[in-house]
Amino acid sequence: MFELETTLLVLLIITLLAAFGFEFVNGFHDTANAVATVIYTNSLPPVPAVVWSGFCNMMGVMLGGVGVAMGIVELLPPDLQIGLGAKEGVLMVMALLTSAILWNLGTWYYGIPCSSSHTLIGSIVGVGLAYSMLPNQAFGSGVNWGKAGEIGLSLLISPLIGFTLSALLLIITKKIIKNPDLYREPQKGKRPPTWIRVVLFLTCTGVSFAHGNNDGQKGVGLVMLILIFSLPTIYAINLESENYKKLPALVQTIEGGIKDAQVAIPPTQIAILNNSIANLKNLLVDNNKENTKLLRVEISNIVKALKSAKNQTTDLKVAGEQIQSTIHYSPFWVVLAISLCLGMGTMIGYKRIVVTIGEKIGKTHMTYSQGAAAELIAAGTIALSSAYSVPVSTTQVLSSGVAGTMLANDGKQNLQMGTIRSIFLAWVLTFPVTVVISGVCFFLYRFLFL
Fold first, then answer.
1. Cα-Cα-Cα-Cα dihedral of 53, 59, 62, 63, to 10°?
2. What pLDDT does 412 receive?
C-alpha cells in the first residue's frame, strides 16, 4: 500500500477530477463536429445521433492504444519529470488543466469551433516554460521542443489537408455523381433520401471513432502525467508487464545489437545510449522501487537513441519496442474512465457548434455532399494521425473541411468571412493565451500550496 500526505492526496483527487472534467468538456466541445452533419441534415434525430457518437467515441478510446497519449506525456522532458516533487508535479498538471478547461468553455459558449488539442498543447508548453523560469533553471528547459515542434507541425498541416482534400473530393463528386438531391440544402423537418442518410451516418461514425481514438488518448496522457508525478513507484513503469521482467535480457540484446557493424547511430546519440544502458544496468542491480522515475528516464533515452539508428537488425528493433512498452502504457481503469467521460460529454452541449458548422461558415447552408466530403476527409486524416501517434485537432480539420467545400461549391463569395475570421482568430490566439493562463496558474498554485 502507499501513503500520501493529506494536501497531496487532496490535490491528486482534484487534479484527477479536473482531467476527467477536461475530457468531458472535450466531448461536448469537439464531438459536435462529428454529429453536426447528421443532425443538421435531418439524417438522424439529435438524441440518437449524440448517443451513437458518444458510443463510437468510447470505442475509439478503448481501441486506440497509447501512442498519442505518450506524445502528450513526452511534451514535458523526462529530466523535468524526475526533478519535480510529487506535489509540484500535480500542481503543474492542475495549472495546465485550469487553462485548457477555461479556454474550451469560453470558446464553446460563443459557439466558436476551437481546437481542444491546440488548447492542451499550449497549456502544457505554458507550464513547462513557467517551470523553466524558476531559479536555477535554464529558460525553455521545461519543454521537449522536439516533440512540441512535431505536434505543432501536425496541428498546422492537418487543417490545410482538411480544407484542400474536402474541396477536391466535392469537385470530383459533382463530376461523377449527378444526382441533384446530393447538392441540395436540407429542408427543415424533411429527411434526405435513404442512401444519403446511410453515407452521412457512416461518416459521422468514422469521425466519432477517430475522435475518440485521437482526442481520447490526450485525456489518457494527462491522467498518466498526474499518476507519474504523484505515484511514481506504481505508475512510472508498468511493473506488472512481462517486458519489465525481461529488462535485463532486453538491455543485453540492445547492448549487443548496437555493436553490429551495420547499425548506424549518430555520435551524440550513441554516447547518450551507452551512458543510459550503463545507468539502467546499475538501477536494475539495485532493484529499488524508489528508482522507477530514474528507470523511466533511462529507458526514454534508450528508446529515443534507438529511433535515430539506421539499419537496425530485427532483434534490435524488437528489443527496442519491448523496452519502450514498459513506459508506453496505461492501466485499463484510466482508459475506461476517459472513454466514459468523453462519451458522456458527447451527449450534451452540441447545439452551439452544430449551428456554426451548418449555417455560419458559408453564406449558403451546408448541403449533404458538403457534410459527407468534410467528414470523410476528417475521419481519414484523424485516423492516419493516430496510426502515427500524432495528435491533431478534429475541430480544425472538420471546420476547415467545411470551409473548403463552401469554396469549391460557389467560390470565395460563399464564405461568411466574419465566422472564418472568428475561427482563425481563435486558432491564432489559442496557443499564446493558454500559454499565459497556464503559466500564471502554475505560479499561483505554487504560491498557495508550496
1. -120
2. 57
| 291 and 163 inside one domain | no
Domains identified in the chain, total number: 2
Q: What burial class does residue 439 get, using C-beta atoms within 10 Å of its C-beta: 0-12 exposed, 13-18 middle, 19+ buried? A: buried
**One domain, residues 422 and 305:** no
Residue 71: Cβ within 10 Å count: 23
Cell of 363: 453564406
- Rounded Cα–Cα distance for residues 195 and 186 (Å): 15
Q: Which helix (H) or strand (E) holds 225?
A: helix 194-230
DSSP 142: T
Question: Does a structural domain hold residue 83?
Answer: yes
pLDDT at 1: 42
Unique residue bearing C-alpha cell 461536448: 28
How far apart CA 327 and CA 421 sit, in angstroms, is 42
Question: What stretches in the chain show pLDDT beneath 70?
Answer: 1-4, 30-32, 111-113, 349-360, 362-364, 410-414, 419
* DSSP string computed for 340-362: HHHHHHHTSS-HHHHHIIIIISB
**d(Cα 332, Cα 309) in Å, to the nearest integer?**
32
Q: How far apart are CA 439 and CA 450, in angstroms?
A: 16
- State the residue range of the domain holding 284: 237-324
**Cα separations in angstroms, 137 against 5, 79, 129, 300, 301:** 27, 12, 10, 21, 21
Is 222 within a domain? Answer: yes
d(CA 427, CA 421): 10
- pLDDT of 32 reads 67
Q: For residue 415, what are the β-bridge partners?
A: 362
Query: Do 316 and 344 belong together in one domain?
Result: no
287 and 146 within one domain: no
Given this model, what pLDDT does residue 3 score? 57
pTM of the model: 0.88
Same domain, 269 and 215: no
- In a domain, residue 357? The reply is no
What residues contact residue 73 under an 8 Å CB cut-off, 6+ apart?
A: 221, 224, 225, 228
Q: What is the pLDDT of residues 358-416, one digit of tens each?
A: 566 766 677 888 888 988 998 999 889 888 888 888 878 888 888 888 888 765 556 77
The four Cα atoms 343, 347, 349, 354 give a dihedral, to 10 degrees, of 100
* pLDDT value for 335: 96
Domain boundary among 261, 290, 324: 324
Same domain, 182 and 296: no
Residue at 408 is within a domain: no
The span from the CA of 273 to the CA of 302, in Å, is 5
Same domain, 208 and 242: no
Examine the domain organization and report whether 166 and 294 are in the same domain. no
